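Running low. Invent one:
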Amino acid sequence: MPSHSYLYQSGRHFHFRRRIPGLSTSIGPVRIALGTTDPKTAHTWLRTLITEFDAVLDDFIFIIDPLPEEVIAHYMRARLLDTINRVRRSQRMEAYAGRRKASHATTPVQRVVLEALLIDGLNTAFPPVRLDASWSVEDVEAAVSLHAHEASALKSSEMRRKLFAEFEAVTGAKPGSREHECQIIEAYLHARLAALGAHEDAAKLRVNAFSEQARKLVEGSAIAPWTTTEPVAPAGPPAPAEFSATQTIAVPSIERSSSSTEQAASPPSRAAFTEGVGEVSGTLTNDALCLQQEQAKAVASSHEPVSDGADIASVFWRMALTEGFSPETIAQRATSVRLFCLISGVQRVDEIRQHHLSGFRDVLTRFPTNFMKSASDGQKSIEEIMQQARLLPKDRQGLGVTTRQRHVKSIELLLERAASEGHPQDGDLNVKKIKPKAKGKGSRHNQRSVFTLPELTTVFGHSLWQGARSKGDRHKPGTVIVKDSRYWIPLILAYTGARRAEIAGLEATDVQEIERHACIVIQANKYRGLKGEEQGETDPRYKKTRVVPIHPHLIELGLLDHASDMQRRGHGLLFPDVVPKPQKGSARADVPDPALMVKKFGASIDHMWSTSLKRRLDGNPRKLCMHSMRHYVNDFFLFNSDVLGATRFDLVGHVKSETEDVNTAVYRGEAPMRLKVAAIEQLPRLF
């Protein structure tokens, strides 16, 4: 760069001004007055300052140690896995789908370009010395163009942000210097170069493996087509392939014997697939399995006389409809069944083997927790899903033990249903062997921590409720109180004992005056249902609606005014801001009312709530959560001799067990409003 670029003139006086690389967006430039108005003198002194400044910068660069080799090696492995997969898929599509362009750089050209970038750096044009004499004119043009494109991309801030974010996600280490950033770029180029070489080598191995397999098949066959036209059974089953070019998930597939002897000995089989339900013949994806389940649901709901096929989707839907599962249970169990089919590759109950069950268990411990957050996830194979999972942070890999237990339970119920329908199953199946085990269990009432009153008053002394610096910074004290979902929902939970989704999904019209008392009517609506209530239920005997009086403190804080304001503005929800903005490309982005697609109402406030707990309760060692407030309210009523059991039940609903007192749960009417009001008003004020 010319020296005069650091020369700055203010009025008649000259100054040295230079920005610090990597910090130009966070701090201002270094500025030194040269003490002269003479241009020649200024340039002389400028050259001296540039030399000294460069020496100081070099010293600063090496103050921080480079990234450890083991960290780079960990990143290299993850980057190699991802790059090899991309190279394999890209070259397959280019070769067989007609996507290759005339100007496309061949693999040898790509390797030379990557070597040039690694050795010669990003700031030079493609070195002529690296041209191969055997290249065509098209190859030379492709190399020059590719080199310029790759160098430009790697120098762009967008590409670098992406690489550094990926590195941090994989290793947990954040680049802290310009040298660290260079190490990451170097590792990225090494991984791409190695992936190209590995793909070429693997292709040769694949050809050799398939050739060897074909040779064994020919040697093991006694067929002589020029001497007989009768079909002859093979002397033995084909030898298994010794090399799998595409296997990435260790869930073995089922080998079906085609032996004529076995076919003759086996009894007449039932229908493989229920009529009207199609087998997924291509790549198994979540979207394809959803479509298959919709077909099975339509057939099972039609009550037409069709054969009970052994397809998993139909067995599940026959079970769901005859057992009377609630919509919430159906959604959960259907997800579990799809996940099993996706991971195992099996679509029929009579094909399930023990290794499919154990493989399902193992993959769930590494399965990404953000699966289906994007609509594009529904079109990915299990190989693609698990490849991407390897690049995620550890806290986003592996489902929780409770979730895994639910998934395994769904498959256990599926197998029991299949057995009751008479579908043959492998006698070695044992679901108990794969059930995830939680850490040591104590008494049921001790399994979830319950708030104490001092803990609650401490939590609600947080700046979120007492006054914060600003709407965007509510964890530091100030004078700003924003009464949105993050403010109201925890407070209402602490004064009602309701579930998070019940309050987060309230409509503005659910705040009503009943018998001259302000109440919250917790009832199913178009946005969310209620636990234990069938979707669309209209019979009052089976509805789970609860009427809960509003605590005087909530009224003083302005909850009634908030409800009136939401109705006046035409909002359907009492807390419209609880609905997260749809991510670009997600399923919710294409619907007129994204609130109708929210699966877990209230999840959007979890981060601020959990952060508040950690800050106020010294890290929250007892693992308290929103549901802990439900148990706090229930225990307050349960151990209060002035609150009847029937009153507690009508206010809180099911917490411990609805069967602990049949008279309380069944043989009675609704608790009088005066008793409900008296019980709610006994709850202590929290601030």
Remarks:
- The two ends are 64 Å apart (CA to CA).
- The beta strands are 7-10, 13-18, 30-33, 511-514, 517-522, 546-549.
- Residues 285 and 381 are 5 Å apart (CA to CA).
